[in-house]
Fold:
Amino acid sequence: MRNEPQAQAETVVEVRDLVKRFGTFTAVAGVSFSVRRGEIFGFLGPNGAGKSTTIRMLCGLLAPTSGTGRVAGFDIVTETEKIKTRIGYMSQRFSLYDELTVEENIDFYSGIYRIPKDRKADRKTWVLHMAGLEQHRHSRTSELSGGWKQRLALGCAVLHEPPVLFLDEPTSGVDPNSRRQFWDLIYSLSEQGVTVFVTTHYMEESEYCDRLGIVYRGELIALGTPRELKVRHMPDAVLEIDCERPGDAMTLLEGLPEVKETALFGKGLHAVAKDPLAAEAAIRAALAAGGFPLQRIERITPTLEDAFVSLIEEHDRAAAPGPGGQP
Structure:
């Protein structure tokens, strides 16, 4: 288990009522949060939720429509060039030059970040060691696997020793083993005091973060540690159900008054209920009557995905027009 950053640690990212509109479309709708030094802070949400737009504003790449924010002590509106010298940024596209070797990519970014000549050799050695790329230093980047490219991109992003690191969907498209190794590197950087801000839509990755903000349709709808989100936002029971044709069975179970909501989960279903005993009896009866053979049903500890689905559905219910056309 990681030790969470101390509550009194300095705040290095602070955002208040941040808004970004593109014409009539609101991509970010008034989000507020803060991140402490050495913390791994995650933005979890579906594609199009506003995660990348928020990161681009924090990195000084996109001007906000309204709201305020500071990164590493600098204003995100008036001091964007200063912010760029104090952060590392890595996107899902890795921003590498495939025609260059590993070493040449590192040399290129050394120049971009204006690393002093007397520091370049030491920083290159550190990146190659940190990323485990010593044996690949002369390899053309295009020949590397996705996992090795990912490590190289991370090394280039922290070459200039930034106190804040922004990772925008950094593990998209890489295999699970490479993803886990990448997170080991993130932990190592965090332990050295680097603040890491990461966006993801992978539930298992979200569990690795110290704190999470759940983003949906441009809004920050929940904020807390992974454990807090599961406990605070899942007061009801979760039943795990293994049955035949779970997709069809879900439609049937959603009509039961004893069941608040259902979702496909792996090869089965998760059903949320206030009274698990009454719900189990109703589910068993409904599946039997509907011709869905039941293999297993049991109450389980809620997962982060359960909390995420519950929050999304609660948000949609609150936003849905009422009988009079009002939410």
The first strand starts at residue 11 and ends at 22. The chain has a mean pLDDT of 90.
